Structure prediction request, 580 residues.
Amino acid sequence: MKILEKRADILIIGGGAAGCFAALTLAKERPELSVVLLEKAGLRRSGCLAAGVNALNAYITPGHVPQDYVDYASKDADGIVREDLLLQMSEGLNDVTREVEKLGLVILKDKDGSYVSRGWRNLKINGENIKPILAKAVKAAKNIEVLEHVDVVDLLKDASGHAAGAWGVALREEAVVYVRARAVICATGGAAGLYRPNHPGEARHTMWYPPFNTGAGYAMGLRAGAEMTSFEMRFIALRCKDTIAPTGTLAQGVGAPQVNARGEKYQAKYGNTTSERLYAVVSENLAGRGPCYLETRGISEEAETSLEKAYLNMAPAQTMKWRETGLGPRTADVEVEGTEPYVVGGHTASGYWVDGDRQTTVPGLFAAGDVAGGCPQKYVTGAFVEGKIAARGAAKHVERAKAEAEHRTNATAANPAGNAQTSSYAPVQTPDEIVARVADLLAPPDEPPLFTVDALEEAMQQTMDEYAGGITTGYRYTERQLDLAAKHIDRITRLSGDLHADDAYGLLKIFELQERLLVCKVLIEHLKARKETRWHSFAENLDYPEKDEAFEKYVNSRLVDGKVEIILRDLVKKEKEAVR
Ligand SMILES: Cc1cc2nc3c(=O)[nH]c(=O)nc-3n(C[C@H](O)[C@H](O)[C@H](O)COP(=O)(O)OP(=O)(O)OC[C@H]3O[C@@H](n4cnc5c(N)ncnc54)[C@H](O)[C@@H]3O)c2cc1C
Prediction:
């Protein structure tokens, strides 16, 4: 493979909502800094925003204050959130909304020119083109170099443990990409495809979360020694059956209540947090009262048309299903089901453990959006805010790094024999070492491997489904099952070491499998460590079916010598107690 080497002040990994906003912030506020953005797919249609969205789910509407949003998100996660991060994020929501509107996003307005809201924290938009709008602005920025179709595999660190860049594979050029940088922002989104999904075979990618957000950012951070938080707070979406389209538009848009097969409204029995809404459906199905629906029958013609349009903006399959079957929401209630579990820090609190600048525990490595933990319910606008905060934090870090480098040069001139105490930003791993590793994976094996990537991926998903609380078990698990899951995931990981690739795409598939396996391994340990059931369905531990005050803590983890080390941390309640 060829090698493509680059240098930048700041490297951004992942050009989704958070990555694009980080880039735009650096373009606007720090045009003197050089920035490289590596994106696995095409920037115009990648990540969560690929198909468009129809609402900005996080906004502070008139009559509300940021603290209201903190309270709401904290209640939804039963207290296991970083209130400091949530408050900082909430304070930035309205600014980024105005900024993205200026870029060209259509936000619906009423006759007085005020934004049209859906509920108290949600704005209606025409968001089919939100990603092309962001991509165009990023590509127009002079100090941002975008490399698309580059799958980033791992971070580079220098001898002092600072992040010093990253490397990946350019899928269309068959090249290794090696980028040295003084600061790195990881914005690769969450992890899908860990569990057996709703649909089999060719349809398996009909899932809610983007199938190509494989948890790469979590995996590279773990391998680099970064601390993670709250993986066990899985996110399982309640979605329209078959299309896996969002249900919020039905529930909030036309006020459709959940009903079971007997037409009974059951939600009040279970509570109304995000996990409780899912748990209600699971429980009604288990009790033999399923399937469950969102009751839309009888809505007006106007409401039906508006729903059809809304779904065209974000999940066109749902509108197509209504049209194809001739059973629109006015004629038939919409059946709902739970998806497979995801690890996604934009909905729940899983991800990197970060400080107020969104710096991780690896100096020089920042995280934003769904990959960053502690700050749930951030959605699109929250990811924008975090991208902005991380960009500012990374820029500050670069300034410090440059000053240190100058200091080091002066110190070395004064004392040539002295050892530098600070970071050198010279990666320990050389390009040649990485090319050799990749060449090894591309070399024809002595014997054909026993398993394909797809076979191992299926085995991984089956293990997670059956033993780590997937769809099959109604999202429930026991410690004994988790032990079995851990054993199988370790075995599959070992087998993945025998895989070989024919080309860059084959490499991508191996790397994706291996990063998912690592996320599964850490997730299982988190599920084991939380010996309580705080969030029904999201983490339903049958050995500990009740909530336990002893677990009013964050479950955090680090990878030490290939083993997962669990760290229980006290809750951070107020901004002044923010972890630095
Ligand atoms: C289907 C769906 C509908 C949604 N609807 C709404 C909505 O209506 N309103 C709302 O407010 N929120 C919505 N959300 C949530 C919101 O879109 C996300 O929270 C937000 O986009 C997350 O931003 P992010 O930058 O962290 O991730 P993403 O936007 O997904 O960006 C991650 C980027 O990283 C890239 N990447 C991944 N791995 C690698 C790698 N190894 N190397 C290089 N690049 C990599 C991906 O290709 C992607 O471009 C929705 C989410 C989904 C999945």
In short: The longest strand covers residues 2-13. The chain has a mean pLDDT of 94. The first helix runs from residue 17 to 29. DSSP finds 15 helices and 20 strands in the chain.
